[in-house]
Design goal:
The protein is mostly helical. 67% of the residues lie in helices and 3% in strands. The structure holds zinc ion (ZN).
């Protein structure tokens, strides 16, 4: 009896062991077939779409933009395939795969296809609403004393004017777009929520984060951590800013209002310190400095620069970006370089994105030859971009001499700290406002906005103001649920910087330190997207993403 039972039991174990293995094998084979079919469609269309977009940004012609739009639509269409999605869903729900590469590919592709399953008529309606709003922004001009002026002119008034009345008029003028677009934005927010709910999310904010591999609770936790780490120090700095402006505008500190902070949103550091970095770069070649620097740390950027479009041209996109054309070594950056500190920062920044892409691991499958997340590549770019105004880096690169480096060291540090803290408090407003707006678009949004501004930026609401000032920030309408990534990129830049300068090389300017390049290649670039972003960060720095090192660098 006993024996028989034992035999049966062991047979059962063997049977279930075999059936388990075969199920695993079966699902892994199905996934491999799925990937092969996906890659045969996606690789050529991805490349075509990246190239078309590159050409459109270089030439600026309608013809090239039309081609680019069609190519990106063709690429996006892959993810609308319902049959492919149900195959992927079956594989996912079987939970039978063990191969970590296949599992990770499945996770990323599943999110891509899930986002593509929305009814095309709903998407078309969303695009129509977005286009309409984007035209409203494009056609709007601020009217000040009966004269129409551009956003750049408003910013210039806010920076240079010293009369409170003039500042207030310009600021209030810039807010008159709010009532024009607010109702349309609320409609769009509700429409986006409908789309998200159709594929099983509670609202669009949650969907956006989750489909990009972020858990909203985890992001909120990091924002809370950063809030408590920066609150006191920011309040102190804000006191310094207020004293400076009270003197400049000859008003009492209690009478300072949002128009007194030199920016429509108080998102950039006001100019209360006086280091002029531009003068140091006036006779420099930023491209040459950047290539010398990167090559010196063992990250060869010559193949990237050779394919790039670096200088101003008629019709060309006036900003800057980096793009990975084929995930196989064709990496380029578009810039409009001039000899000043802004473009020094920018070319270091864009080449940071560039090396992240260029040094991917070619043995990984196509889907994983990508950054762990968009904010992790932003972090690398920010870490290198910050060097442009780092006196130690400028000294090591021969831009300034030791005496000058010493002279500007204190003010440079203060200026960078101010820039980081002011931006971080503003990013708190954006993240929390958007999250709450998508959770309940019917609440009093005007009040929600000012509650956030007063709490995080410590800016006083003008008496009795009840206007949709939130609607004047174009990102709320047209680049939704993305702003937090800028801040996460800043935090991670500091975490990488701290890890490298503690464990890889004590040389804080990185100049000539090949070990820095080797570390980044091995721990950040080559892993690509094979791990979830927080797993990659933990493997590379020994800790999950934390606000600690940002605070260590910028908070005292
Ligand atoms: Zn960037």
């Amino acid at each position: 009896m006993k024996l028989i039972v034992k035999v049966i039991a062991s047979t059962m174990i063997i049977t279930s062991f075999w059936s388990c293995t075969s199920k695993q094998e079966k699902m892994e084979n199905r996934m491999k077939a799925f990937v092969a079919s996906y890659e045969s469609k996606a690789i050529p269309l991805y490349r075509e779409s990246a190239l078309a977009s590159w050409n459109a940004n270089v030439t600026g012609t309608n013809e090239d933009f039309a081609k680019s739009e069609k190519a990106s639509f063709d690429f996006a269409k892959i993810f609308a395939d319902r049959k492919a999605f149900s195959e992927l869903k079956e594989i996912k729900e079987s939970n039978a795969m063990k191969d970590p590469i296949l599992v990770r590919e499945m996770e990323i592709l599943y999110n891509g296809y899930l986002g593509g399953q929305v009814d095309t008529t709903l998407i078309a309606e969303q695009i129509r609403m977005e286009t309409e709003i984007s035209k409203m922004y494009a056609n709007f001009r601020v009217s000040v004393n009966g004269k129409q002026i551009s956003d750049n002119e408003v910013e210039s008034i806010l920076k240079n004017e010293t009369g409170s009345k003039e500042l207030q008029t310009a600021w209030e003028g810039s807010k008159t777009i709010g009532p024009v677009v607010a109702a349309n934005i609320i409609k769009l927010v509700k429409h986006r929520n409908t789309i998200a709910q159709k594929i099983g999310f509670s609202n669009y904010h949650e969907m956006s984060l989750k489909l990009s591999g972020q858990d909203p609770a985890e992001v909120t936790k990091i924002f809370d951590e950063l809030d408590s780490l920066t609150r006191n120090n920011f309040a102190e700095l804000k006191g310094e800013i207020d004293s400076y402006f009270a003197k400049r505008y000859k008003v009492a500190i209690a009478d300072l209002r949002p128009w007194h902070y030199q920016n429509r949103y108080f998102q950039e550091a006001p100019q209360i310190y006086k280091v002029d970095f531009d003068k140091y770069y006036a006779k420099q070649d930023p491209v040459k400095l950047a290539s010398t620097f990167y090559n010196g740390i063992g990250l060869n950027v010559d193949p990237i620069l050779a394919k790039s479009d670096l200088y101003e041209k008629p019709g060309k996109n006036q900003h800057a970006f980096s793009t990975d054309i084929d995930r196989s070594g064709d990496v380029r950056t578009l810039d409009n370089i001039r000899p000043d500190s802004y473009w020094m920062n920018t070319i270091l920044h864009e080449l940071g994105h560039g090396v992240y892409s260029y040094y991917n691991d070619k043995s990984l499958p196509f889907t994983l030859r990508d950054a762990a997340h968009t904010f992790t590549t932003e972090a690398i770019a920010n870490m290198f971009g910050r060097l442009a105004t780092d006196p130690q880096w400028m000294l090591s690169m021969g831009v300034i001499d030791a005496k000058e480096s010493e002279t500007i060291s204190e003010e440079s540090r203060k200026a960078l700290r101010l820039q980081m803290l002011v931006f971080s408090r503003w990013a708190q407003v954006m993240y929390r406002f958007e999250k709450s707006m998508y959770e309940n678009p019917d609440q009093n949004l005007n009040q929600l906005w000012w509650t956030m501004v007063e709490k995080y930026q410590l800016v006083t609401k003008p008496e009795g103001r009840d206007m949709p000032d939130w609607a004047t920030k174009i990102h709320v309408a047209l680049y939704p649920c993305y702003y937090h990534n800028y801040l996460l990129g800043d935090l991670l830049a500091s975490q990488f910087y701290n890890y490298i300068t503690t464990n890889v090389s004590k040389n804080q300017s990185f100049v000539g330190e090949k070990a820095v390049g080797t570390y980044l290649k091995e721990k950040v670039f080559m892993p690509g997207a094979r791990y979830d972003w927080n797993v990659m960060i933990e493997k590379a720095t020994g800790e999950k993403l934390t606000a600690k090192y940002y605070a260590k660098q910028f908070v005292e």
